[in-house]
Amino acid sequence: MPGSRRGRKRLLIVVSVRGIVNFNEKKNASAGKEILMQKNAARLIKRAFPALIAVMLVFVFALNSGCIISDTLFGHSSSNGGSYFDTESAYSDEPSDGSPPELDFVVADLEEPLEVDTYEDYELLGKRYLHICDSEYLDLFFDYPSVTAEECIAHIDGNHAIPEQYKALMRKYVNSVAAKYPEADLRPFDYNIRTLEIQECDEFELALHTMSIDAYGCYVRTENKIYVPKGYEYKPGTWEYQVIMHELSHVARTVSRTVDKTNLDIDFSIECCIIPEEALNSIFTVSLFDYEERDIAYQLQSNMFLVLTDCLEGYELSDYINHSLTYFAHMLDEQNGNTNYAMAVMKLIEEQRSDWSNDDYEREQEFYYPIYDYLTKMYVDKYAEPEMSESELKEMVDRLVDTVMYDVPEDYNIDTAEFYRFAEEYCSGSAN
Q: Would you say the pTM of this structure is higher than 0.70?
């Protein structure tokens, strides 16, 4: 693999389409000491500078009147234009007694079907509010049905706020998407790219924008601006190359702008599942490369979503660009004979990430068995053969476990035995 980066420190900040996601990529046991330093640094920032964060919030609010503060800092905007603050994020107060927080969802197949996000269009005080969650409804704003790669590139070249180094990367991104996923609707990307700004920062400036002391880059949707460190060359196979392409995938799925009297919000994400969104982004992004890249952001979660996308019939990665996460969850429910269960599994994946990144509590592994069982069921449904022997079944589950566990930090403490136990029960017909 070009540019292997194992064991390297990774406190990477990615601004998602609904806010900032803070994540450490812990790659192997040899990096344990360095990872501990990362965690301590993150905790120091959180606990030593609450006043600074409060001041910055007030300052940003003053500068961005009409914008949602949580979009640009550490929360997640809600679909109704308000704000939602993730109480289990890296910036929240953890339980002081070491007990894990209670979940705000039930890990069960709900009776009420999942509602797939589409759009909202309403007027308030003489202003139009248009929130689009699926490319099928982009015609509500755009008066042209599609955009070509050539048109996108023309707008890239015409944007003088983008340095030439980044224009070359963006041309490559557009050409890769158009070649590999011709069904992908690039109108949001094209609209953003006309006014997108790239700001190269020193370490201090980048930390102010990302709330991190060790960031590789971020996209702030309400500013339509990508912040990156100075001095990177962004060569294929490097971590920074993956990061800048990851950010461009955010640019392709979200627009936040006020145009005349229309408050436009194109956003295919949902606030309760930021990590699943980022995992799908990572999978989509590395699929554009002309080399294999398995060492990716949100490693465990991305590995899990590799299994889900592989086993989900009729889902193409172009659907990540065109549709919301609820669309993805609905397809999972339909295939698995559920009414509303996939979203609970994805929320549990989100919680497992939060658990791993939090030093103050750790849930028992049994708590996450529904994830492993769900992945195993889908994998067995796709790859199991009639009259499969016990050894063949084990080899099949070995492949599943190898995919899920590829390069995953050891301190996730994944109980891989559950994959084998559930596969055996499921194939024998005794699984619940």
A: yes
